[in-house]
Amino acid sequence: MEFKINNDYFKKAVLEVRNAVSSKTTIPILTGMKIDAKPDSLTLTGSNSDFVIERTISIVNDGLSRLEILETGSIVLSAKYLNEIIKKLPNDIHFKVDENQLATIKSEEIITKMNGIDVTEYPSLPNIDLHNIVTINSNDLIEIIKQTVFAASKYETSPVLTGVSFSFQKELLTCIATNSHRLSLKRLKIKSDLIGSFIVPSSSLNELLKLFGSYTTDIDIFATKTNIVFKSENISFYSRLIEGNYPSISGLFSQQPSTIVTLDTKQLLEGIDRASVFANEWRNNNINFQIDDNSKIMISSMSSEMGEIREKQYIKNISGDEELSVTLDGNFMMEALKIIKEKEVNLCFNGSIRPILIEPIGNGSHLQLISPVRTY
């Protein structure tokens, strides 16, 4: 196996794939990165128990020759040390592997030798049906993940809640995440041959955001009973799926709210942020919302030791019951508002003990629910 490659391209690819490799794994082969030299491309693969990243470098990139394959072959090298070496090399790389699985990496007058691992021990990728497919622009995919994944549970006591539910229909993708105290739902119109519902670990989706965040491209999505694949021209991201049934949300959005108030999104977020200064001593970062004078909403919090803060904001519009006092988790509210792009939101209340609905004005495809905090 032998190839020459532009260092900038190789460095970027190694770094992307390195994110899939965990140093804490108990399986020695998975501490390594697989390198495959083919006649027309170089493929790097990193894997852990949750997801796999496969990165392909073509001979020609951006209209220029960046790679020369001199001899095909495969090897597995320590991902940690390969990444550390490659990012410190000054110029293009000449990479060669001998019959004893010893890799020689040369850049100018710098020569590094690394012992390889038997490539036959490396796990194979799952078989994917390439006929059941949905294609989504990367910007749309990144947005739908960002607007839902934050609401997934951080605790493994209920595994299905640590993931995001992807439900594919012929013309609609619905993503839902909840930790049972809050919920975020986002819908996206699509054209899909892939039909079904799949629970994707939030940890995998957060890595996917990092991986595709700098790319603007179309992404093909495939799925089996155990895996889902997000694939662009040069990158494939394989994630395991979480087994189980995602909780039904039918009925959660059907109740007619008793009070609807319209507020400025940015101003509301900043007010909650200020109120959170005195809310830290509470387990749920308690912040109280109360309608005042039928035209203002009062946002307040207090600390038994430090003091209290009260702030009034003008309501742009109000309908329904004008008697309202609700306590909510300030962190949940801020995380919900931060991913809303619209300038105004409706807060839909149904008493002091039922979840509130947050709906961006002019965007009915994105809905959020947050349960009140019991203060007694």
What does this protein look like?
The structure is a single chain. The protein is an alpha+beta fold and 376 residues long. It has 3 domains: 2-121, DNA Polymerase III, subunit A, domain 2 (DNA Polymerase III, Chain A, domain 2, Roll); 134-230, DNA Polymerase III, Chain A, domain 2 (Roll), CATH 3.10.150.10; 259-370, DNA Polymerase III, subunit A, domain 2 (DNA Polymerase III, Chain A, domain 2), CATH 3.10.150. 17% of the residues lie in helices and 43% in strands. It contains 6 helices and 28 strands. Strands 16-13-14-15-28-27-26-20-24 form a 9-stranded antiparallel beta sheet. Strand 9 and strand 10 (102-107) form a beta hairpin. It is elongated, with a radius of gyration of 25 Å.
Instruction: Kindly state the percentage of residues in helix.
Output: 10-25%
Largest sheet: 9 strands, antiparallel
CATH topology of the largest domain: DNA Polymerase III, Chain A, domain 2
What is the CA–CA distance across the termini? Answer: 69 Å
